[in-house]
Amino acid sequence: MSSGSNSGGLMSSAGLVRYFDTQDRNAISMDPKTVLAFCVLFGVFVQILSLTVA
């Protein structure tokens, strides 16, 4: 095998690093604790609904 056949890995991922490294000012930013609290409360809500309906 020649050394040039497998040399595109690092260059092909450079665009992805640049794309994901930028911060969009229009994007919604939420605290991870808020998301976790919402998921826990939603799970409790579903459990309460399943006990009252069934």
TrEMBL record:
Q: Which residues lie on this side of the membrane: Cytoplasmic?
A: 1-31
What keywords would UniProt list here? Cell membrane, Membrane, Protein transport, Translocation, Transmembrane, Transmembrane helix, Transport
- Please report the record's description of how this protein sits within the membrane: Single-pass membrane protein
Query: What GO biological process, any one, is recorded here?
Result: protein transport
Q: Can you tell me where the transmembrane regions are?
A: 35-53
**Annotated GO CC locations:** plasma membrane
Family that this chain belongs to: Belongs to the SEC61-beta family.
What name appears for this protein in its UniProt entry?
A: Preprotein translocase subunit SecG
